[in-house]
């Protein structure tokens, strides 16, 4: 890894910016039919929007909130949010966009709250909305990225009970609302918009074609609707294909949605210039990126211009803009398509060496969690160990022991045992769940024992783990 990397404290603004800034959506078409559904009855506080990838969930929610002039608190769920400490930590960062002074009064999640996450969540969300004088919308985007058994769903249920009547919580997910929220639906406090409702009707399709600068005559619109069944991703690709080819693409009636996407994306992809194609293949491994990271990874000097154009034309690239800068994210459908394509046409772009290089760039840019994901994917355990050792102190102080513990549990035992910081961090992560397990992990030869004691004394990260170690030595 290079020497210019960020500490975790320096990295947090970049990660928080990526997770908590509303994506810029180009070519927005107001869907009044669905806006009315989201409005619900007076006093509605929760909306759940569900559908498959490419159904237009994020675009719908972003355009709705803009049309209704809500003050927006946007939070993009990642797999790391299965650790609720990570969720509350970064949501606290997001709250600064509403009221920087008030955000400092929000309670901080710690290990002592792990046994009653719901009670802490109710307290947190009461405090979050306490000063909301105007209509505020909290959006939790892509909740499906966290498993149903995660405590985050307990947090969701608790949050839903704390939303003031003039505000709302909007959830997007590939899954429908869980049965635990059924009461809110019966009372009218929650509205649901599902996959069938998200399909574009013929009139909406004509309006979308107009917005995207490619109006179609009646027969062409009927063909387009019949071949896409109103699926947003297929409509966008077919409109772009029609611009380039001068006709509506033929697709089999029984083709599954992903096959349709891959076919149409391939047709359009082949019409890009070779340098643009190579650029896309080389950045496909990045979960999200700045233009600078994309340029360094791809060696393409026009990376910034290419990303801006892709986002502006809504080619399944989302731009996130704020005072902190710009980040870009590939739609999951496009990222999967490009990674599969790269495996066939440019294998070096998805090789372990490329993933390690991408992780290094993300780490230096302050995207620590994204870097860890790539390093884990390519089983680059020494680099994962180095990342965990460097950031363990801060993560434990933030209460994010579950995330840190997942990283450590993946490491070969010899890597953990070779570094007292990792051995201590692993014991500290497990101590909250099992004091006995923490003591067992700390039973080591005297030489290593002294190193652990020095590490404990120097860091004082978890007094309980140190006490467990001392008890064992007696």
- By DSSP (H or I, 4+ residues per run), the number of helices equals 26
Instruction: Kindly state the number of beta strands.
Output: 8
Uncertain stretches: 6-11, 435-446, 460-474
Name of the CATH class of the largest domain: Alpha Beta
Strand content: 5-15%
- Which outline best applies? globular
Number of domains: 4
- How far the N terminus sits from the C terminus, by CA atoms, comes to 41 Å
How is the main sheet built? 5 strands, parallel
| Average predicted local confidence, pLDDT | 85
Radius of gyration: 24 Å
Structural commentary:
By secondary structure, the chain is an alpha/beta fold. The chain has 4 domains: 31-198, Rossmann fold, CATH 3.40.50; 202-269, no CATH class; 274-368, Arc Repressor Mutant, subunit A; 381-473. 57% of the residues lie in helices and 9% in strands. It contains 26 helices and 8 strands. It has helices at 8-20, 32-39, 57-68, 84-95, 100-103, 117-129, 152-160, 182-187, 195-198, 202-211, 218-228, 232-245, 257-269, 274-283, 291-298, 303-312, 332-345, 352-364, 368-377, 381-397, 401-410, 413-417, 420-431, 435-441, 446-459, 463-473, and strands at 23-24, 46-50, 71-76, 136-141, 168-173, 190-193, 317-322, 325-330. It has a 5-stranded parallel beta sheet, with helices on both faces. The protein has a 3-stranded antiparallel beta sheet with strand order 1-7-8. Helix 20 (381-397) runs antiparallel to helix 21. The protein is globular and about 70 Å long. Mean pLDDT is 85; it is low at 6-11, 435-446 and 460-474.
